[in-house]
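Researcher: Let's do a round of design. I'm pasting the structure tokens now; please hold your answer until I've finished.
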């Protein structure tokens, strides 16, 4: 019956005794309602246990008012509480009551299990069903039929409720077709009818290129997957930033003087920091003539600037007087890390704790010898972008010497990444505070293109145009690879594969690096030493390989490693190997390490196919520099291991054992200084030359 009620009449035969839970089942809206605390049965005739049977005036009363459909189903539990007496007749009424009781029980059973309209699961005639598994083993599982048609537990479900949902229909036989009201939530999409396709375009974003095409506005942070292919932002984390927020990895491209100002001191000023605008740390070389700023050359593009930013320069940085100068940013670079999604949401790439993988900025390690430069990606822009991103100030003043933090680590994977730019018109520079780390000097390589101009350095540690000290700029666990015969027949005019003029103190230099120089170029050059007297571990476990003889290089006797005009800095070279090309490739290299300044300590130095592994020519007295050589070995091609030029300051060079002449054909030290004495064989004791 459908009703809202508390008490209901029960006009049917009821059982014996007064255990009503063994008489009937009560269902409300399709759910069985247990008796305890929920309902009772009474009769106005009297006690259920003693009034005559059948009982026809029973009343079922709910404890609380109920609304809905109530079904009262007979559930008589078979049993006998008394028996007919022996040796006497049975009254018709008593017999009818017993038969009615039995008939009622049979009817109730038939209603439950008959094979047409019953409520039980039955198999067709002639089939049998296996016994169910135990309750413990089938708990919280779905029901399925196995290959024999028996009911078994199958897919685990999260609770005892397993529903399809309102409006869902399942039709067909093989396959089933599911239709209507199946919806995804958030980024999940469900399309089709048979089969259904569950999709999530923003759950597994394969690359930065894919992210550009999606609406990611609902997310505050997102991450791309790993690197199925090189480059393109794989494995990077991005955070949403407010509309109009400049990206950290966008840099000044161009700008112009809007007002030249007046009253400034004439001169050329290097490493001058701009002030103003939305960004930080942009620097330039500024020329003042006639009291006005006449040229501005940006030498470090800073980060986070916006088009239209109006920048100024404090007069204290350009002579101490003058005013009125302004310079306006007219263009910024396009980011290769951060991006804008399909609806304009801005996502800033994030620096991971362990460092930023260069592939997140699009660097591709796809150069190989079979395809050469033509088949490889030019990574000049992407390498520059990731270096500048790592160098962006992270708090405080951003200047190490006065506190604050700046810089970070760039990680290079295994393989070779080629870079070219405009054939060397601009050098690839590793900024202040940036550590670039590969996976080993035989695993990771950067390769300048074969078209690189002979009159340009290929790689710089620090900004050579700043004319200021540079700290914590380390290149490690990798190689820089120049094709063996590149620059043949040219005079590289003192230009190097790796160059620095201001690297200073611990954390600046090369560590576990191999440099392949090509034919006629300096491998590693240190000069000038802006920033004053200091200390630099310039090379630890460094190999410099390559180099032809001078006659094949337009008379250029380029050193593999050159230290010139580096001031009074203390320089350590620890674990140095220099090897020239063989005679069959135009070798041997004429000179290995040439020292023209600084206080240089050389330890564990091996030279092979180099005519003069060490040349010392420091003029200006003992205060201009000294050289100590310890643990050195000369292999084939060597004539004299160390050569002291005739103009070298006497007393500034000493050797310490162990020393091995090996294949040096003449001896250990050629002392061309006035009154000098050569060392032709190894000695046990240390020796200073012409003190």
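Researcher: That's everything. Go ahead.
Model: Designed sequence:
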């Amino acid at each position: 019956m459908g009703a809202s009620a508390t008490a209901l009449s029960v006009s049917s035969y009821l059982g014996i005794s007064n255990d009503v839970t063994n008489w009937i089942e009560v269902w409300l809206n399709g759910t069985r309602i247990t008796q305890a605390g929920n309902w009772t049965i009474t009769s106005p005739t009297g006690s259920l246990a003693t009034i005559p049977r059948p009982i026809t005036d029973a009343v079922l009363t709910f404890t609380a008012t109920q609304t809905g459909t109530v079904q009262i189903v007979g559930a008589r539990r078979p049993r006998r509480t008394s028996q007919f007496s022996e040796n006497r007749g049975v009254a018709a009424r008593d017999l009818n009551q017993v038969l009615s009781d039995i008939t009622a029980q049979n009817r109730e059973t038939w209603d439950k299990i008959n094979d047409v309209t019953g409520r039980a699961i039955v198999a067709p005639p002639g089939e049998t069903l296996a016994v169910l598994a135990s309750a413990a083993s089938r708990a919280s599982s779905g029901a399925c039929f196995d290959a024999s048609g028996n009911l078994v537990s199958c897919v685990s479900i999260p609770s005892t409720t397993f529903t399809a949902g309102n409006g869902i229909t399942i039709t067909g036989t093989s396959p089933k077709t599911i239709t209507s009201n199946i919806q995804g939530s958030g980024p999940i999409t469900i399309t089709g009818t048979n089969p259904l396709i569950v999709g999530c375009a923003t759950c597994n974003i394969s690359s930065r290129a894919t992210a550009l095409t999606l609406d990611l506005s609902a997310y505050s942070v997102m991450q791309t997957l790993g690197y199925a292919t090189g480059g393109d932002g794989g494995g990077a984390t991005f955070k949403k930033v407010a509309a109009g927020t400049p990206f950290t990895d966008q840099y000044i491209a161009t700008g112009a003087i809007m007002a030249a100002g007046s009253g400034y001191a004439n001169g050329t000023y290097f490493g001058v920091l701009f002030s103003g605008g939305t960004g930080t740390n942009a620097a330039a070389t500024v020329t003042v003539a006639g009291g006005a700023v006449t040229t501005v050359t940006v030498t470090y593009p800073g980060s986070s600037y916006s088009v239209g930013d109006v920048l100024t320069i404090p007069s204290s940085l350009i002579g101490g007087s003058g005013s009125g100068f302004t310079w306006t940013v007219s263009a910024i670079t396009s980011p290769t890390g951060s991006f804008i999604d399909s609806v304009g949401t801005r996502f800033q790439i994030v620096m991971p704790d362990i460092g930023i993988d260069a592939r997140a900025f699009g660097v591709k390690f796809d150069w190989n010898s079979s395809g050469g430069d033509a088949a490889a990606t030019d990574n000049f822009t992407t390498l520059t972008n990731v270096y500048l991103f790592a160098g962006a100030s992270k708090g405080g003043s951003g200047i190490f010497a006065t506190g604050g933090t700046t810089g970070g680590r760039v990680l290079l994977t295994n393989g070779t990444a080629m870079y070219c730019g405009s054939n060397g018109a601009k050098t690839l520079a590793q900024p202040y505070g940036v550590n670039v780390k590969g996976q080993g000097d035989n695993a990771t390589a950067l390769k300048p293109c074969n078209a690189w101009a002979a009159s340009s350095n290929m790689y710089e540690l620090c900004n050579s145009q700043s004319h200021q000290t540079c700290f914590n700029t380390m290149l490690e666990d990798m190689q820089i690879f120049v094709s063996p015969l590149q620059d043949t027949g040219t005079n590289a005019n003192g230009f190097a594969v790796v160059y620095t003029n201001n690297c200073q103190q611990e954390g600046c230099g090369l560590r576990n690096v191999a440099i392949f120089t090509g034919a006629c170029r300096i491998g590693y050059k240190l000069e000038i030493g802006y920033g004053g007297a200091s200390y630099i571990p310039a090379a630890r476990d460094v190999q410099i390989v390559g180099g032809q003889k001078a006659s094949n290089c337009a008379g250029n006797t380029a050193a593999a490693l050159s230290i010139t005009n580096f001031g009074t800095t203390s320089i350590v070279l620890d674990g140095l190997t220099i090897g020239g090309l063989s005679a069959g490739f135009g070798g041997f290299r004429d000179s290995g390490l040439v020292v023209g300044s600084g206080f240089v300590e050389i330890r564990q130095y091996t030279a092979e196919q180099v005519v003069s592994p060490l040349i010392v020519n420091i003029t200006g007295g003992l205060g201009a520099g000294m050289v100590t050589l310890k643990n050195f070995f000369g292999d084939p091609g060597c004539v004299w291991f160390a050569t002291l030029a005739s103009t070298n300051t006497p007393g500034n060079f000493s050797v310490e054992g162990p020393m091995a002449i090996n294949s040096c054909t003449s001896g250990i030290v050629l002392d061309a200084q006035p009154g000098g004495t050569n060392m032709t064989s190894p000695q046990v004791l240390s020796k200073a030359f012409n003190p």
